[in-house]
Write a structure and sequence with these properties.
Structural class: mainly alpha
Length: 264
Amino acid sequence: MMADSTTDNNVNNDNAAADNLEAAPIDPEDAFLFDFMPNVVVSEPKIPIADPELAEQGKLLQKFNTDDWRKVRYADVKRQFESTKPFCALKVNQYLETLIPRCKSFDALERFDQALGAITHGLLKQKKIMQDMLDSFPDEVKDVVVNAFASTDSQYKKISDDLLQYVTGRRSQVIQQRREMFKPQNMGVRQAMYAIPPSETYLFAEPRHLQLAEALPDGVNHFLPNNNKCICCNFHKQRRRRKVEESESDDVEDSPPQKKKRRR
């Protein structure tokens, strides 16, 4: 009899423990571990959204949505930043002066080269002013200011260095586009000329470019581009021609088919 009662008590205790286990609330953190909901990663925008405060400042500075947008001038301050080499637009080499393409794209790239050089000069002047100011501080103040503005983990230094990287990299691309305006017909001459890097003065470093030109039998004629025409203008002409051909083909497809006349 006692064995039966003991067995019944054990069974009752096991049932009660099972009931308590089923009734026990699940910790939210434990429940998260068993979450099988699908997750999709959304890509970031290619161009980050501007900070609202900075966007408002930029709009006010550029005078957008006002009649004063064309009155924002730069002539009064450009002399502070425009300077001699290497901060000015690179010159065309002597043997290439007579081959300068007379097109708007070439002139626009030259002005862009000049503007980016001036911005680079301004950024370096700004850095120099900051460095001189830091050197003038007393030692007890200098450490605090250096950690805030000039340390490797300083946000100010990172933005300043990245902006300088962007401007100089963009100018390198513009200089390359200006150099590629001159495309010799002979492939060997073209490779030899493009192997000459730009200098702080010319699109192709001297005297290497002069030595290459003088070593060629026909001199300047080797630098003539195909058909003696501007590469940029040819590119735009071909682009316009393709657009006309595409529009004409679209018109033909959209037009109703014409009925053929039956011969009697």
